[in-house]
Amino acid sequence: MSSGVPPYVRLANEIAAQFAHRSPEDAATAIANHLKATWDPRMKQALIAHAASGATDLSPAAALAARHLEGAL
């Protein structure tokens, strides 16, 4: 059964959970660096567009990481 959450959102939130012990800004930087190094450009663009649309299903750190990515692409 699908939850309706896009895979890139689920993955970004799972990665963000691994950095929950860091400050939000530090976590977002680490998440963005990980995504830059490992994600396909289409996934990064989809995440950026999703966050820019005002989506509420991203964790705060994942949403901030998407904004960091936007400036890096």
Which structural class best describes the helix and strand composition?
Answer: mainly alpha
Order of helices and strands: HHHH
Largest sheet, described in full?
Answer: none
Helix content: over 70%
Kindly state the number of beta strands: 0
Number of helices: 4
Q: What is the approximate shape? A: globular
Strand content: under 5%
> Average pLDDT across residues?
93
| Rg from alpha-carbon coordinates | 11 Å
Q: Can you tell me the residue ranges where pLDDT is under 50 for at least 5 consecutive residues?
A: none
What separation lies between the terminal Cα atoms? 34 Å
Task: Describe the 3D structure.
This protein is mainly alpha-helical and 73 residues long. It is built from 4 helices and no strands. Helix 2 packs across helix 4 (60-72) and helix 3 crosses helix 4 (60-72). The chain is globular and about 25 Å long.
